[in-house]
Amino acid sequence: MALVTDAVTGEPMSLHRTWICADGRKADIDPQRLLLGGHRKQGGVIRMWPDESVTTGLGIAEGIETALSLAWAYAPVWACIDAGNLKALPVLPGIESLVIGADNDPAGIDGAHACAQRWAADGVEVHMTKQTENDLNDVLKEVA
After folding, report:
1. How far apart are the two ends of the chain, measured CA to CA in Å?
2. What is the pLDDT of residues 63-88, one digit of tens each?
């Protein structure tokens, strides 16, 4: 379970639930992830580090697993829930460097590039991952 908050205000918006097995794999159920019904997710993020840890730099990714994988190399990180939220993440004041853990699928690439272009146009230094696997979590699972 993870709290979804508004990316700008930090106000609670919803809960994000992922069903996992005891060994850490996602449970073989449909859907594997679910947001609390009747709540909006647009503009929401999962703050995986507290706001006071976010000073001049921030790492972002679509999902929780990819954000945690990005955290092996860069922190603090937030999960944007999906490619649409990542794509629309507003430029946040005070952030000088943004690291995007991009998913390697059409929606992920589009969302990451659109976010990167908007933040860079506002003067933020932007770095984006690129891997042949779908996401950083897949990369780490292969080498583990």
Report:
1. 25
2. 888 998 899 889 999 999 999 999 99
